[in-house]
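Supplementary Note 3. Input sequence used for the single-chain structure prediction.
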Amino acid sequence: MTYKSLFVFTCVVALSLTAAFGQITENPRVEEQSAPYVKIKRVELTDEYTIVYMRFVERESPSMKRLNPNFRGMPDFQQRKVPSTSTIGLDPETRLYKPGEIDKKYKLIRAKDIPLDMRKEVYSGDTVNFVAYFERLSPGIEVFDFYEGRSTKETMTWNFYGVHIKNPLKKNAKSTAKVAPKTVKPAPQTPIEQKPEPKIEEKPAAVEDEYVMIKGTVYDSKTKNPIPAQITYFEKGDSLEFKSSSGNYRIGIDPKSNYDFRVLAKGYYGTNFSLAPADSSGKGSFSKDFYLIPLAVGETIALPNIYFETSKFTLLAESYSELDRLAGMMKDNPDIKIRVEGHTDNVGDFDKNLELSANRAAAVKKYLISKGVSEYRIEAKGFGATKPLAKNGSEEEKRKNRRVEFVITQIKTTQ
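The predicted structure, written as discrete structure tokens, is reproduced below.
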């Protein structure tokens, strides 16, 4: 071989290696994930597959009730391996998505070292390395979501949001993301070979109809910085939780169901949010950010969903959810004291408005006491129309002025 030929050969090999390594991402950055004990160690892209290398580590705890998809609870009684009722498995409906675009989905083809239709027993402290083969991601998709499903009371799914990989767009790509099965020339076995094809085409359509994404960030309302938070939501009678250490969240929901979300963060007053995807014009994903007010002395926090009978101080049932949230905050923070404040618009007699606002504040206090909050921690005061938020010039402005708020008057600090 001449030096010139050797040089050309070396360049070709070098370029091929560069291209190959450009399709491998070691320890990819993951923005959020639902289970910290499962890691994505490597993502490899071939002409046919997106190959995800994963590692599961069975947690060690003296009395742990396990809830993985797959995983249902074995206490670790001793520091030795004993037969385990904890199991892991990968849902065969697991798929990859381009964030925010549910039509960009890539099916799970097969898995190695982890079962799809059964459960694999694990022991306390065990490590399980396994591999999942998906359809090939389209060139140019360098961030994807790994979605196994929605958690329930009995199971916790392995979902990864914002997985960053190397997958540059190819100018002259010969193949696209989803590689169709190779056709086979007609033969005596043709009817047998054609059987799998309907299954491949039918399942994604069903999945697309049952999954949309809601995503956003939880912020400190004062600093506008993201804060760690817990989002609780209710689906078909189940109360589900999503914990985010960064404040970012992505949750898969059923577009045919209605949802009530509760957003909580330590040291902040939480909030509620309702969503009916079917009534929205959004397609595939919804965005919702939350700004929580820090619990600090002097903070005034509005109670937006408090309702009374007209011109009376009788609480309506629609108020209970908001007041239950306030009672929960008081119980979680036993060193906090508050002052409940009632306000009215300027319509009618000044003294009667003052009396009405005081009675409404007292009604809120009475309700909180009925929920187990100590009476000495709650002060109630009415201000009538003396502290308007708006000018009372329109019905909308008057509505803003008819309100109930609470002010944090004391937070006892412990050394």
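The mean pLDDT is 79. Residues 350-370 form the longest helix (21 residues).
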